[in-house]
From TrEMBL:
GO molecular function terms attached to this record: hexosyltransferase activity
The family this protein is said to belong to: Belongs to the glycosyltransferase 87 family.
Pfam families according to UniProt: GT87, MptA_B_family
A GO term from the CC aspect: plasma membrane
InterPro entries to which the protein is assigned, alphabetical: GT87
Domain of life: Bacteria
Keywords: Cell membrane, Membrane, Transferase, Transmembrane, Transmembrane helix
Protein name as it appears in the record: Uncharacterized protein DUF2029
Membrane topology: Multi-pass membrane protein
Subcellular location: Cell membrane
Lineage: Bacteria, Bacillati, Actinomycetota, Actinomycetes, Propionibacteriales
């Protein structure tokens, strides 16, 4: 592995992290350029024979790419401050599902980092869990940020599921209050580097070039969302990849446990259940996954009762999933608002049925890749870090065209409020994917590659 290649990518990751603190157009240009450079370098590297220590080199430079994000507070969102708070609340013996961050009952847990404008002796006037209104305008007012704290939505309970909460608690136990979000940033960076090693090792085991793992490990997106923003999606990604690998080794119970745990970190991984479902064989994996997901809530259900659902209903309303509308940027270009929700639901069912139909006919990583990627294109969620699992799945499946989807999500995120522009950005990513799939099916060389991947993926 040439040192200049790793150094160039590390410099690119540093540029993206630093540039993202700016509010101008430059961060988007830097991110797009860095991603294109990464893909080009990966392609060039894989044209040459791999050295004996290539995996070690990939992992070391993956660690270097995470360092810039650790030097400053989170950039792309304030989610990490909520993570810190949730972990701290649980260590105190309370539940983040039944107490909101501004609750005066938890005033002794405040510190100057999380609450720069509210000391433990100050009163916020908030006590007890709020009742979530059904009116979108009132809900938006209740969930608005408060200048007295860095925690987002401080007047509503948490949204994060139990395995994520366990993760927050463990990190909080090991992190002093004065370190702020650093413990979570370090943990996310370590997970990203460990996943790089896992991907590279697995690719080598499948007789594929391990250097393709740099598309995850050296990605500027991963640098932004792991070492910098500390998003819990990195943990969900690691569990999804582990589930895919155990499924390929025909370990249905372990696969179900891992997939259920991933769903209990972030709900989105549950969309992959159809990829693990067969109509002709035993359906152990989806049953265990759903059981694991449900079981993870038991202790919290005993502690918080029905409050265990947290802010989830409100979040779904704000994202357009429960009020009959849809934020799908692509569908918004083509359909009136009243038909988007139904269309998205029909597409989701069709994708699920196709995944079940394809079970056993292609590697599970391939099915998970296009299923997850298509789900993102249909729903176009507001937050681009939801695409982290797709990057790892694209590397594992060898379907690199899907990397266009998370890149487009960042460009659209920067265009928030410009609906047509957002739709066109996502539509461009969909066209890139569609063209690549068409070319693959028509190219003899790609057919041979797919046959080799299919043989090695089962």
């Amino acid at each position: 592995m040439p040192l200049w290649v790793g150094g160039l990518i590390a410099a690119g990751a540093t540029t993206v992290v630093i540039a993202s603190a700016s509010a101008s157009w430059f961060p988007n240009l830097a991110l797009l350029a860095a991603c294109l450079l990464l893909v080009a370098l990966a392609w060039l590297l894989t044209r040459r024979p791999a050295g004996p220590h290539v995996v070690l080199g990939i992992v070391l430079f993956a660690a270097v790419c995470q360092l810039p994000g650790l030097t400053q507070p989170p950039i792309t969102s304030t989610d990490a401050y909520r993570y810190v708070w949730d972990g701290r609340v649980q260590l105190s013996g309370s539940s983040p599902y039944s107490h909101v961050p501004l609750d005066d009952a938890l005033a002794n847990l405040r510190d100057p980092i999380l609450f720069p404008g509210l000391s433990p002796t100050d009163r916020s006037g908030v006590t007890g869990p709020p009742r979530l209104p059904h009116d979108p305008a009132a809900l938006a007012t209740l969930s608005a940020d408060d200048p007295r704290t860095l925690i987002n939505r401080p007047s509503v309970p948490t949204i994060y599921p139990p395995i994520a909460q366990a993760y927050f608690t463990v990190v909080a136990l090991l992190t002093p209050w004065s370190a702020g979000t650093f413990g979570l940033q370090f943990a996310a960076a370590a997970l990203a580097v460990a996943l790089t090693a896992l991907l590279a090792t697995e690719l080598r085991r499948r007789n594929r070039d391990p250097r393709w793992a740099i598309l995850w490990g050296w990605s500027p997106i991963v640098a932004l969302e792991a070492g910098s923003a500390a998003h819990v999606d990195v943990l969900a990604t690691a569990l999804i990849v582990a589930a895919v690998l155990t499924a390929a080794r025909r370990k249905p119970v372990l696969t179900g446990l891992l997939l259920g745990a991933a769903g209990s970190v972030k709900l989105i991984p549950l969309l992959l259940l159809p990829a693990f479902t067969s109509l002709r064989r035993q359906r152990t994996t989806p049953s265990v996954a759903l059981g694991t997901f449900a079981a993870s809530y038991l202790l919290h259900l005993l502690a918080a009762g029905t409050l265990v659902i947290g802010f989830l209903p409100g979040y779904l309303t704000q994202e357009g999933f429960s009020d009959g509308s849809s934020r799908s940027a692509i569908l918004a270009l083509l359909l009136p608002p009243e038909t988007r929700q139904l269309t998205a639901a029909i597409l989701a069912v069709a994708l699920a049925l196709l995944a079940i139909h394809r079970h056993g006919r292609e590697p599970i990583a391939v099915t998970c890749c296009w299923l997850y990627g298509a789900a993102l294109l249909v729903t176009t969620p507001t937050y681009p870090w939801y695409g982290l699992p797709l990057i790892a799945l694209a590397v594992l499946a060898g379907r690199f065209e899907w990397l266009a989807v998370p890149v487009a999500a960042y460009l659209a995120y920067a265009s928030f409020g410009h609906d047509v522009r957002q739709g066109l950005i996502h539509l461009t990513a969909a066209l890139i994917v569609g063209i690549a799939i068409t070319v693959r099916h028509r190219s003899p060389a790609e057919k041979q590659f797919d046959a080799r991947v299919r043989a090695l993926g089962h």
